[in-house]
Amino acid sequence: MSAAQKLQQHPVFIQAQNKASLYVNQLDKELTKYPVLTTIEQKTQIPKAYAVIGALFLLITLHTFNALAAPISNLVGWGLPAYLSFKAIESPSPHDDVQWLTYWVVFGFFNFLESFALRLVLYYVPWYFAFKSVFIVWLQLPAFRGAQTAYFSVLKPVLQNISSQSRVVAPATTTNSEHTD
């Protein structure tokens, strides 16, 4: 019996394999909620759980060992949202328009802030672009409503504060004709 066969028959290996299978089945059940993943599964014949795990592994690998982490992160933030924004413009429903318009406002504001502090952030935050990619996916997914949450909890109060300050009228100054007795 080879070492590989002995390992496969070891109780710890069997227990780990059963546990992993349970988690993959639970993930597959959760991913069934997304028709796009079911369609991809049917077209590629790759189980959706494995495709998602593989995509996440690829993203993590690219972010960890690749100098192209920033462009990949920006592609995650631009590629699918651009396509879904196009579909939203073409659809008669205004609900998806709000989702993607809010996403682009938050994504743009985030990229604007990032342009000022990127070097500092990269110095202090390891794996910044991996975290950014996860944040961007959170913003994108309608199930989480991340873009709306970020907009209403952060952006809207800031923008309203700036807007209200710009409307403040300076105190009126008295003219010479008002001082004449």
Automatic annotation (TrEMBL):
Domain of life assignment: Eukaryota
InterPro entries noted in UniProt: TB2_DP1_HVA22
Give its localization. Answer: Membrane
What stretches pass through the bilayer? 49-72, 101-125
Listed Pfam families = TB2_DP1_HVA22
The Gene Ontology CC terms held by the record are: membrane
Q: What is its main location?
A: membrane
* Topology in membrane: Multi-pass membrane protein
Q: Which UniProt keywords apply?
A: Membrane, Transmembrane, Transmembrane helix
Output the PANTHER family linked to this UniProt entry: HVA22-LIKE PROTEINS, RECEPTOR EXPRESSION-ENHANCING PROTEIN
Q: Which family does it belong to?
A: Belongs to the DP1 family.
The protein depicted here goes by the name: Protein YOP1
